[in-house]
Structure formats: structure tokens, C-alpha cells
Amino acid sequence: MNSKEIAPASFDREKFNTDYSQLTKITPGIIKHTVPDKESKERAIDALVRGEADSFHQEYPMIKALSREGEQECYALASSLLESTRLMPGIEGSVYKGAIKTKIVSMELVSAMRDYNEAKDGSAEKEDATKRFMAANIKLYGEPDRGTYQSLLSEKIAKISQKNRSFEAEEIFSELKDILPAEAFDASLAESRFRPSDETVQWMNRVVHSLCDDMLRHVPKTDGLIGHKQLRDIFQAIVDGEFEDDEWTVELGKATAIKVAPASKRIVIPSDRQPVTAAEARRLVVHELGIHVLTAMTGSSTTLKPLGRGLAGYADTQEGLGKVAEQALEGEFKEAGVDHYITAGLAYFDGRGFVDAYEAKWRMKLLEELADGEVPTSEQVEKCKRQAIDGPGIATIRIFRGTDELPLFKDLSYYNGSVQVWKYLESICGDDLQLNLLLAGKISTSKEHQRIILESASLNPTENEVA
Fold it and tell me: Which end of the chain is more exposed for a tag (fewer CB within 10 A), N or C?
């Protein structure tokens, strides 16, 4: 059956549209549901920084509120929709089938978080919830690669080791040796990794400036910091002035990071986000608006709505594109998501929990920042401790969010995705048509997803519209 054939009469498109919209509404969002209660978060951070806690625990209201009745409703509705996809014409069936299965796994992941948090330590229920969490976690996001983890960590330690340390810094380095696995100090494990050619980086620099320069003119040239309210105003000015879709809004709210929500056409900036420099604001503009919002708009303009929200397996490429755009803006390649990858590896391969990972990370952060012979101050130590818990690009909290004990692999997408996208761009360097396909929706670099983009144009929009 090709994409131009009409669906069998037994297929009720109106009911499918309604049910799919309902499934989208009741499926828990991973980012949204793993936002902790603000008071419990602040309390846990303060206790850990002061050295008054040997564990880290936050409250997750939305995970706790997930009812078993709602969970079963989600599974039942998804099962019914999966049956309906068998009657859909052409590529529609496979596209929606993948999207529905992803929603099922998302529900499995969040329900496992709920059950893990409710279960008693050492109980069979806790063990079962752990297994279900890891299965769904890996199915959605993959798992760390041991060789990559060891290479990234060893390279970081090798750079720290080369410094001339003061007596106080040497004590901190000695403490770090007691926390990390011995392999971390084996410089031979710091193997060379992929780097794109200068030609590819320069090509993408031109592409990003072509796409985003009109957006970037809204970012003020200032040596001062840009707060979360001003960042919201900048984003809204870009949405209003540079995009044709006037339904998108920017707001401040509860979030662990900036969130682009294609279904509701909302961009949420955390109300407690720390101020950023103008350069950081420019990187956020190209990442969040130049990639995430743009691909949501281009994908939603097709007849297959999952293209605007993400085909199955799109996450690494989407975050990779965001990081690649940031790097291309400045014309300089830099590995993305290294600290998140190291945190995930510490948990997954070396069994380090939140506190041990934090203890290692603040020491690495401090030792990286210290100049040769510099004596660390108490202010520097506290700053690095807080950054290691919840700082941009390094936050331990992001890898352990949802349970504060089990590693969530969602943020592996920054490293994996950027490597995947740079490799793909290296293979198509200078081919603007192939690049346009990658930006035509929330897809991966796979040939299958490219085929879906191309075939979606031939579908009848009145027949195939799904809300």
C-alpha cells in the first residue's frame, strides 16, 4: 500500500484523532514529572553543601501523584491505538506506531520511579521497580559506553594532574583519588575521539548564522548578566518578530531546564534559572529557538504531527543538533555533555550514588578552575559544591532526577547526539539539501526518518490530520 491510498473504511480517523490527542495529554512527560519540589530541593542542597547529610533526597509531587488508574488508562488507550495503526495507509501506521510505543515506555519509566520512591529499601518491590526503571530508561535513551566513559574521565583527570598544585589543592586531589576508581588515573585510557574537520565546522558556522542572525539581534550587547525575566522577554520578542506562528508563548515556570513543548506551543524558562552572560544567551537562542522550536514548527507543518513532536528515536539527534548549533555559532568544536556522561558512567559502571558522584565532581570542578599554585578559598569551594549539584552543564541532579538514586540516561543525548550529528554532517559537508531534510522535523539522522519526511509531503492533509 503506498502513501496515496485511502485508508480502509473501517478506520475511524476522527476517533483516532481524538484518542491520540488524549493519549498525548495523559502520558507523563519525563522532564515535567521529574521537577522536584522547590523547598525540598533547596533543603537537600543546603544540607549536602554544609556536610550535614550523607544522602540526597527531594520530593517529586507529579511522580507521587501519578495514579495507577491513570496508568492503566494510558496503557489501554495506547493498546487500542496500536491496533488502529494497522489500518492506516502508507507510512502513517509506522510513524504513529513508533510514537505510541514511545509513550508507553515513558509511562513505564515514570511509574517505575513512583514505585521505587514508595518502596522500602531492600524490599522485593524496590528491586522490581529498579529493574523496570532501567529497562525503560535504556529503551528510551540507551546506556553509557564504558570505553567512552573511561576515556572522558581519564582525560579530565590527566589535565588536572598536569597542574602544579598548592598544598591545599593537593589535599583535595588526594581526596579525589579515594573517591574515583583507580582506572580514572590511567592516562592511557584517554583515547582519541572523533572530531569534525575544520571545513565542516566552518560550513555549519555559515549555516547557523544564516538561520539565526535575525534572532540573535534581539540579544543585547552587554557585559552584564541577563536574568531569567529578561531572557524570557528576549525569547518572546524573537518568537513574535521572527516566526510566523503567533501561537507560541514564552513563560517562566517550574522546570529543571528550559523546556520547549511543541504540543502546547510553550517555551518554559525555569523561574529560578541563574543569570547568563550575553554569549550564553546567544547559545541558548540558537539551541532552543534555532533548533528545538524551528524543527517543531517545520515538523508540525507537515501532515504527520509526530514529526513536530518527535519520531521514535529522535532525541539524540535533536539535542545533538542543539549542541552543534551552539558550537557552530562560535566556529569552534567542543565535546558536549562530558560531565553528564561522566556522572552517568560513575553511577552505571562504578556504582557511585548521588553523594559520591557529587563529592567527585565538585573536586574535579575546583581543581580544573584553580591556577597553578593557587590556594582555594572557602568561597570557591562552596561555589563549586553548589555547581556540582545544580550548575549548568555539570549538575549531578540531572542524572539522578526522579529518584535521586538511580541514573537517568536522558542527558547522554548531549554527548551522543552531538557526536552523531557531527559525524553525519561530516559525511554530507556542503550539501544544504540533506541538511534541510534534517531540519524538516524532529527526526534522527537515519535513512528511514528521511524517507518519512519526503513521503509525508504526498499525504492528503485533509485525510491525515491528527491533532
Answer: C
